[in-house]
Amino acid sequence: MYTTVNEDGVLNNYATEPQMYYAQYPAIWEQRRYVIQGAVAAMFVSVLVLCAFAIS
What we know:
alpha+beta, two-stranded antiparallel sheet, 1 helix, 50% helix, elongated
């Protein structure tokens, strides 16, 4: 914990910051999974929109 004291004696506590690291570029199999997830999400949204039009 990082603590500072100002001139009035008030303590300010700061959380310790985690070490930074760079993100790794996704592998081919991860990219394919993201494409499949996007396609399923798009179909789900289009089904919801079509149901809303059918009901109204």
